[in-house]
Amino acid sequence: MKKTVNLDKLIQDFSLLEQTITELRGKNNILQIKLDEANRLLKLLQSKEKLLCEEKNGLLGSIKCLQHNMEQQCNLRGENEKLKNVIIELEKQNEGQVEENRTCVQRMQCEMRALQEQHQREMEDFAADTKRKLESKDAEIKEILDREQSAIKAMRQEMKDQEKEKQSEVIKLQMEFGAKLARAQSMLVKSQLQPQASGIISPNIYKRKLQFLQEEKNKEIDALRHKVKELEQQNLCTFSEPRLKRKKI
Questions:
Q1: Alpha-carbon gap, residue 28 to 22, rounded angstroms
Q2: How many other C-beta atoms are found inside a 10 Å radius of the C-beta of residue 141?
Q3: What angle do CA 112, 117, 119 make, to 5 degrees?
Q4: For residues 137 and 238, is the Cβ–Cβ distance under 8 A?
Q5: What is the per-residue pLDDT across 144-159, written as a single tens digit (0 to 9) for each?
Q6: What is the C-alpha to C-alpha distance for residues 151 and 159, in angstroms, rounded to an integer?
Q7: What contacts 163, CB < 8 A, 6 or more positions away?
Q8: How far is it, in rounded angstroms, from Cα 211 to Cα 219?
Q9: 2 DSSP 8-state letter
Q10: Is-contact 207 141, C-beta < 8 A?
């Protein structure tokens, strides 16, 4: 049995199909346009996303730098606080040390004043003791000088006495010589037979003896004078030494 084809319906269906295809093509074109726009928008968004990523990376680097700087600042703040505390502690210690030094200086000043006063007293005592010793030494030297002067005076008197004795002895010898010379001359006159040489020898002997005694007397006088000068120089030195010591003191 043959089926019958309804052409009108077929044409109508075909028309509807064409219309549907046309509509689908239009929609497809619209969708293609939208797809192109979406692709362009996607590319734009991707570019923006890349830029944003770069900006994000830059911002992250900046944030890291800021974090590092903030950490350093925090560390510096901590160190500054520690340093402030150390400075405060050092200032306290310095104040304590200054006070201790001030107390030590005051104590040392008191000790120095006490030592100066003690030294002054010792100097005064030493000066008084030295003065007493010098006065005693002066008295002793004066006594020694008096004794030496008395000794010198006695020696001078002794020299005068010895000189008088020597002069008396010389006069006596001269008188004896004169008497012996007179006797010798008288004997020469009386004894003509004796050799003349024996009569001449006796006066020469007396002359030599007289000359010898005169020389001995002069030597003793010079020795006594020299001794007196030495004693006077010793007395002068002994008297001048204490004066020099007093001037030095």
A1: 9
A2: 19
A3: 90
A4: no
A5: 888 878 887 887 888 7
A6: 12
A7: 217, 221
A8: 12
A9: P
A10: no
- Check residue 1 and give its pLDDT: 47
SS3 194: coil
What tokens does 75 get?
Answer: 């560390």
Q: Which two tokens stand for residue 191?
A: 């004894």
Contacts of 230-236 with C-beta under 8 Å, sequence gap 24+, read 231/148, 231/151, 231/152, 231/155, 232/152, 234/148, 235/144, 235/145, 235/148, 235/149
Rounded to an integer, what distance in angstroms lies between the CA atom of residue 234 and that of residue 10? 182
Tokens standing for residue 198: 């024996």
Chain length of the chain:
249
CA distance 98 to 163: 91
Residues 6+ apart with CB under 8 A from 10: none
CA angle 71, 73, 75 (to 5 degrees): 70
- What distance in Å separates the CA atoms of residue 26 and residue 29, rounded to the nearest whole number? 5
Tokens of 141: 């030297």
pLDDT digits (tens, 9 = 90+) for 139-193: 888 888 888 788 878 878 887 887 787 777 767 766 776 676 677 667 666 655 5
In this prediction the pTM is: 0.33
Alpha-carbon torsion (9, 15, 18, 23), positive or negative: negative
DSSP state of 192: S
Residue 227 to residues 44, 145, 222: CA-CA distances in angstroms? 144, 16, 9
Please state, in angstroms and rounded to a whole number, the distance separating the CA atoms of residues 167 and 174: 10
**Using DSSP, how many helices (H) and how many strands (E) does the chain show?**
2, 0
* Amino acid type, 61: G
Q: Are 145 and 238 in contact (CB under 8 A)?
A: yes
Q: Show the CA angle centred on residue 31, arms to residues 26 and 37, nearest 5°.
A: 130
